[in-house]
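Feature request disguised as a bug: please show the residue count (478) next to ZP domain-containing protein in the output. Example input:
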Amino acid sequence: VVMRKPGQEMIPVNVSEAWRRGYEFHLTEGRLVFRTPYGQPDSFSAQVNGVPVEVVHAILFSRHSWVIITVNLLAHCSMHEGSYENGYLQWRGLQFSSPNKRHKIKVTVGMNGELEQAHPSGVENTVDSGAEQGVYEVEKQNSVFQIGIPYNAEGGRRKSLALDGLYEFYVFNLYVEQILLEGDQVDARLRVFRTLVTPLLPRPLFCENGTLLAERMFLAYLGDVPEDVVLVSVGLNGQEFPLQAQTLTGFTVTEVAHANNTRGYTLKVPFDHPVVQQQQDRAMQYVLMIQFTLHVLPEERPVYHQTSVTVLLDASPPAINASCSDSGMRFTLEHRPSEHPWQITIGSELLTSELAARHGYVLSNHSQRLQLDVPLFTAGYEYKNVSLKGFAGTFEVHLQDPKSAEVHSWVQTCPFSLSQYIFCSRTGVMTVVADLSPMVQSGLDPARTSLLSKDCRPTESDGTRVLYSFPLNSCGNT
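Example output, currently without the count:
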């Protein structure tokens, strides 16, 4: 064996001595394997097309009778440590070089010692292409191939760190195999194992304010918490509450698990909790300063996330009760003493006696109660799920504070079932249900009827009744 290195005299040694120096040669039928550790004295470093490589060159001599067989073993292993760009961890290596133009090269990428489906890199040793292999990106140009791994790809390991904020990094045990083929025959195989690590990446948490005014309840949701980070305590307006004691404090913290291996925490604090700051002038102001304290496991290093919620209430709106009848709906509002008169609106119009008379509503208003009867098919209704069996009618009433423009809405939906009716929707569609029983007795088939336009046929028929639904100004309608 001769180990060849630039600038170094080539001194042959026998195979036993080569083994003693750390070089392994295994010869089986049709297969020669050469193994050597990195950093051997006979290896050397070089730059090939911008890729740092470690090169080892062994020449084997074998005598068979009067014939000497020489085998050149040249391996150049990429020493590229990886780089991070645009969410991808990238590693660069060198493609096999072969003078045989019939050779094909396959590059296979995997993780943790397991390979994915092989990617054929080309024929005749000329490659200039890019392809995706599962979640990996394999790009080749000339003799260099580059592998891109999404930072959060499956197969990697992540770890959180607390360093003046929450950070994370990912570790990948990259496994790359190159195969040199002539037909179906494997001429050479090169396997590379590399451990790649991303730089420290910020891992921001987010907090959503979902305060429930109707329930007089602060609600804050802390989300995107990694699986190795846990919430240990909550600070409310400067008072610290460990989670172990939170059941005794009058507020709740609920953990929410997600399928992407993250978790969230929902904090609920009543407006009337003693820790909540309250200021009253013309309106009531509730202030809650929140500090979430989390620990990164297993080190239990603390991470803090702060937010604040302020609620300003002029006055709570009175409740509106709604009920259904065969002929429409009824809305009832009980009056109560208030310095903030709430106004009732239908759509964008203020409810007055004139508006009620114009639309056909029945309005009664006295010191204790306001009552509004809305007959079916009057203005403001929205109709859904229309069929011969019936339909759903929806009507919406708004309460508006004229000072703050705060609006609260009440939506009532009632089922109705009528033998015949006609109405127009807000989208300009006319619906007609007609009972044709007298004509059926004369042999008329309701399903074969039409409007003035013969193309306008029933959309539904039950043997005696028909349902037509058509745009305005169509089907002979004017």
